[in-house]
Design brief:
62% of the residues lie in helices and 0% in strands. The chain has 48 residues and is mainly α.
């Protein structure tokens, strides 16, 4: 589902809630770990 953001408050910046930041940080960390494993596999295949 794609939702449009409401206009930014005065100053043109949004503030992300603490719960969102905590959950997003965990998700990003997991995705970076997975990307590292995929990159290692690709490099091992390419470089032998």
């Amino acid at each position: 589902m794609i939702r449009r953001l409401r206009p930014a408050p005065h100053g043109g910046q949004y503030r992300l809630g603490d719960v969102y930041v905590t959950l997003a940080t965990r998700s990003v960390q997991l995705q970076l770990e997975r990307a590292g494993v995929r990159l290692a596999w690709i490099l091992n295949e390419a470089l032998g």
